Amino acid sequence: MKKNKNRNELSIFEDFRLKPDDFRDTPPKKNKLLEIDDIYFYYNRKLKKNTYWISTESGLKQVNAYQQLLEDDDEDYQSKVPKESSLKKYKTDVKVHIEEKRKDMDIVTWWVEDKNGELIQVNTTKEDEAGIEFKIKSWLRNKAIGAVSLEISSMKKKAYEYSEDELMRMIEAEENKVIKKGGCGEAGPSGCDNACGSTLENDECGVCGGSGIADGDCDCDGNVDAGCGCGEAGPSGCDDACGSTLENDECGVCGGDGIADGDCDCSGNVEDCAGECGGGWESLVERRRTA
C-alpha cells in the first residue's frame, strides 16, 4: 500500500482486517470462470421463498443458489422433495472459479460482474460463521487497529502519512500488548459470541443470545400449531378435519358425489315421461304392459 491522501482512515485500515480463508484479494481471469446452468428452483409457499435443486443419479438434491448442498439443519432445508414437473430452470449471473481440485471435492469461489465489468466476489464466509480460531484472531486484529487509529489521531496525524509496513508494525505491536495483558485486559473472550466477559449462550434455535421460540410459535421456523401438529395445516373443509379440502356437494353431503347418474334430484327420483322429476306419469307402453 502506497501513501495516498485520497484514501480515508477507514478504507486504509480495512486492508489490515482479517478475512476468512475463502476471500481472494484479486479476482481470477474472466475466461477461467464457469457458468452455473444446472440449477432448478421451486417456490416453497411455507418458507415463502425459492428453494433450489439439482438432479443427481440418486434423485433431486437441495442446494443453495450457489449450488452448495444444504444440510438438514439449514434454515432453508425442506424435507419434502418436489416433483420434477414443478421445477423451473434457474438463471443466474453468478459464475464459479475452481481454486483447487481435490479427490473428494473442488475448492471454488463465486463471482459476478458489476455494472463496470469488474468482478466482485460473492458468497464468502461471514465472520460470524467462521471458526473459533479465526474469530479470536479477527477480534485481536480489530482491537489493535482501533488502538493504532486512536494513537495516530492523538498525534494529530493521518494514516495515509504512514507506509503499509509502518502501519503493520504498529498493529502487530498493539496485538502483542493485548496478548500480554491477557486478551481483553479483564475477562477473556467467552460466550457464544466470543466477546470479552460475555455470558451469552445459544438459545434453543441455535441463535447466540437469542430469545428462543417466539410466543405463539411451535418451532424455530415460525410455524404455529393449529391443533393438528406443529407446522401442519389446521382443521378445514366441511368435515373440519386437519388439512381437509372436502366441500359439500349439491346435495349438502360433505365430500359427496352429488346427484347420482340417472337421478334428477338428491332423493333418488327420476324424471317421468312428462319430464317431471319424481312425477307419476307413465308412458302408454308402460300402461298397456301393466294392464
Please characterize this protein's 3D structure.
By secondary structure, this protein is α+β, with helices and mostly antiparallel strands. The chain folds into four domains: 9-16 and 128-180, no CATH class; 30-126, no CATH class; 213-258, no CATH class; 261-291, no CATH class. The protein has four helices and twelve strands, in the order αββββββββααββββα. Strands 1-6-7-8 form a four-stranded antiparallel beta sheet, with no helix packed on it. A four-stranded antiparallel beta sheet has the order 4-3-2-5, with no helix packed on it. A hairpin with a 4-residue loop joins strand 9 and strand 10. Helix 2 (132-154) packs across helix 3 (164-180). The termini are far apart. The relative contact order is 0.08.
Structure at a glance:
The chain is α+β, with helices and mostly antiparallel strands and 291 residues long. The chain has helices at residues 9-14, 132-154, 164-180, 284-290; strands spanning 34-35, 40-44, 49-56, 59-63, 88-89, 95-101, 106-113, 119-122, 189-190, 195-196, 235-236, 241-242.
Layout: helices, strands, pairs:
Elements lengths: L8 H6 L19 E2 L4 E5 L4 E8 L2 E5 L24 E2 L5 E7 L4 E8 L5 E4 L9 H23 L9 H17 L8 E2 L4 E2 L38 E2 L4 E2 L41 H7 L1
Antiparallel strand pairs: 1-6, 2-3, 2-5, 3-4, 6-7, 7-8, 9-10, 11-12
Helix pairs in contact: 2-3
